[in-house]
Amino acid sequence: MSPLLYYALPALGSYVMLSFFFLRRPRLLHTPWVPAFRPRLGAHRGGSGERLENTMEAMENAMAQRADLLELDCQLTRDGVVVVSHDKNLFRQTGVNRDVDSLNFEDLPLLKEELEVYFSPGRFAQGADRHMVRLEDLFRRFPRTPMSVEVKERNEELIHKIAGLVRHYDRNEITLWASEKSSIMKKCKAANPEMPTSFTLSRGFWMLLFYYLGLLPFISIPEKFFICFLPTIINRTYFPFSRSRLNQLAAVVAKWLIMRKSLIQHLQQRGVQVVFWCLNEESDFEVAFNLGATGVITDYPTALRCYLDSRGPPALAS
User: Fold this and answer.
1) CA–CA dist 198, 310 (Å, integer)
2) What subcellular locations does the record give (predicted)?
3) Which helix or strand (DSSP H or E) is residue 148 part of?
């Protein structure tokens, strides 16, 4: 045996054992985050499978099912109003080919009478309420309900207005910053660092890489939420790519990478809550909670509430 291997192999063996030990016992190295809330039932766009998405009626319906989290996206109108809308362009939702920021709030068109549920293709939602709603109206109507606010564009005025509304209504601990892009999340955290954050796509990639390299137990995690799609919905209700074979490959790879109980248990022990989206079938609810997820985000809050009630109360976190 060469001198290099003589020293390298025992060192590598010791590293593997230490990594495995602290992966299962992270509290020996890190003080876990103390959650301000634990979302088991999250309503995607307010529950866009049961009412028209992001309307006050949808939010009311979700709250009637005892939702723990309202998930929504925000845009900014021409007159500076923070409005709840997934899309910047209004055509899909209203039939009017205008951007939100090209209109004043009072001039925003009504939503269509029915909208297709994005994560349940071929199914449509209807509702009596077709009006778009201001973020401030939701804060007033549901003052202590946790909300996840996603910012999709690098719009500093929008980010600062959201941060200001959160401060004004004393919602720092129960309003979550969400964004796919780290550049946007950086600006969000600067605008209001007291709000909890979720993993961005790149941060999620690095977290998975550290997990497989055995480094995750030794790395600090500033995020309090890991909100991730459940890999089993790819190529069934979620089609990230235009080609079927790419979706099939993504489903296999993502399932192998993400659906690891040891990873989810490690995050949970460190106070990072794991929430899977956007699940609309009971079989997917079952998969998510059996993996150890804190909660699920769905378009159908009534279905998830029925499932949770039949499952019983959650086990207490150790």
Assistant:
1) 29
2) Membrane
3) strand 147-150
